[in-house]
Amino acid sequence: xxxxxxxxxxxxxxxxxxxxxxxTYTATxxxxxxxxxxxxxxxxQLLLKATKADDKGSNKGFEATYRKxxxxxxxxxxxxxxxxSAVYFCALSPLSGGATNKLIFGTGTLLAxxx
Amino acid sequence: DTGVSQNPRHKITKRGQNVTFxxxxxxxxxxLYWYRQTLGQGPEFLTYFQNEAQLEKSRLLSDRFSAxxxxxxxxxLEIQRTEQGDSAxxxxxxxxxxxxxxxxxxxxxxTRLTVL
Lengths: 115, 116
Prior knowledge:
Chain A has strands at residues 3-6, 11-14, 19-21, 23-26, 32-38, 44-50, 56-59, 62-65, 75-77, 86-93, 104-105, 109-114. Chain A is mostly beta strands. Chain B is mostly beta strands. Chain B contains no helices and 11 strands. Chain B is globular. Chain B has strands spanning 5-7, 10-13, 19-24, 31-37, 44-50, 53-57, 65-68, 75-79, 88-95, 106-107, 111-115. The chains are: A mainly beta, B mainly beta. The interface between A and B is medium-sized, with 24 and 30 residues.
């Protein structure tokens, strides 16, 4: 079946530290991959996406590369800010090409950035 | 574009009662999704509409749950004979799905259900 596994949190970093949140997936075929972010008191927002192998999604300084050989989509940022504190969700869509009819989410990773 | 809206934002009910939630998607979005999120977990897919047609339902959606999207615009999710295990955040999302394109799901703020 389709599933997403992401590293457990919380992840606590100091401002300007390097961030990695690991995400691996299991899927048949060629899924599309997403990172969503949930800031305190707000709804889920799409952070970035990649629709095929070797694609790199990027937004707001965050990056993730779709690695088919390792079935991974790790989220990285070179220098985190306090405002990045949120819960990050890795997700996949079983359909290829980015056309979704449902998303399968990981359990989420809480990031806390301290000044 | 006012985003996806959900009402009510919070609902407290007693076990055995029926509840109904409403979702208003972004206008012109033809796809609408319902998810359920419990504490410490990621959202779980419940069901999906393309216009007014319900195209997929999860095994999570027991016969006590029913969803409608009668005119292809807003949607309702009804839970009959609520149980304490139904306590969760119910999320709605919408997207503009076109063949061959990447559609992004936009989420609403959710309805938090507490069953006493």
